[in-house]
Amino acid sequence: MTEFNNFAELHMDILKEIGNIGAGHAATALSQLLDKQVDMLVPNARVIPFWEISNSVGGPEKEVIAVYLRVEGDVPGNLFFILAKESSRKLLKQLVDSRYETGEEYSDMEKSALCEIANILAGSYLSSLADFTQLHMTPTVPALSIDMAGAILSYGLLQYGQVGDLALLIDTTFFEGMEAVEGHFFLLPDPHSFEKIFRALGVPDL
Which residues pair with 145 in a beta bridge? Predict the structure, then answer.
């Protein structure tokens, strides 16, 4: 089992660089989608134990919007993009003519728009990781859920099976004008996938 304390500064620097490049790709893709300039702050990338994921988004009982999918290929794993409801409203305001109010359900168009954003982010970060490692990674079709963070994580992982004991967390902040939107991007490689990633990068094993 990979231990959290085994991650050296070199490993973290590489993960942060991959996150930074992925954020740049995502900003470009979002700008094209919205037909306006979208900037992204340099992301805060870190590796956390699996059990801390819920706490990172406000606690297991925090109601959130989550898009999750399976990563297939050389380094399989699970991927989650999690937003607070307030952030999702800001996103939808930019993407569609959203009149979402507290207590109302999301329309099919709004759900589709959120899935598209998650697709763009997932594709951008996975492409960056694939470019660095020359490993093949393909995301499945995303699924959206609105529930408590703990329930979403449990359900998603039950659907996709095994999971490693660590997650790569990339805190993502992107904005157009003064409307900053904060999201959390989690990559949970299957057991031993982290080792494959670093081996492909030519850095020492964990």
Answer: 66
Element (H, E) at 154: helix 149-160
Q: Which residues contact 177 (CB under 8 A, 6 or more apart)?
A: none
187 CB contacts (<8 Å, ≥6 apart)? Answer: 71, 77, 78, 79, 125, 167, 168, 170
Which two tokens mark 73? 């290929």
> Which domains does the chain show, CATH number per domain?
4-201 (3.40.1550.10)
Strands (E), 129-196: 137-139, 143-148, 166-176, 179-189
Alpha-carbon torsion 171, 176, 177, 180, what sign?
negative
Gap between the terminal Cα atoms of the chain: 10
- Give 135's Cβ-side CA count (13 Å radius): 22
- Other C-beta atoms closer than 10 Å to the C-beta of 108 total 8
205 DSSP assignment: P
Instruction: Provide mean pLDDT across the span 48-72.
Output: 86
Residue with the bigger pLDDT between 167 and 71: it is 71
The whole-model pTM stands at: 0.80
Backbone angles phi, psi at 61, to 5 degrees: -95, 0
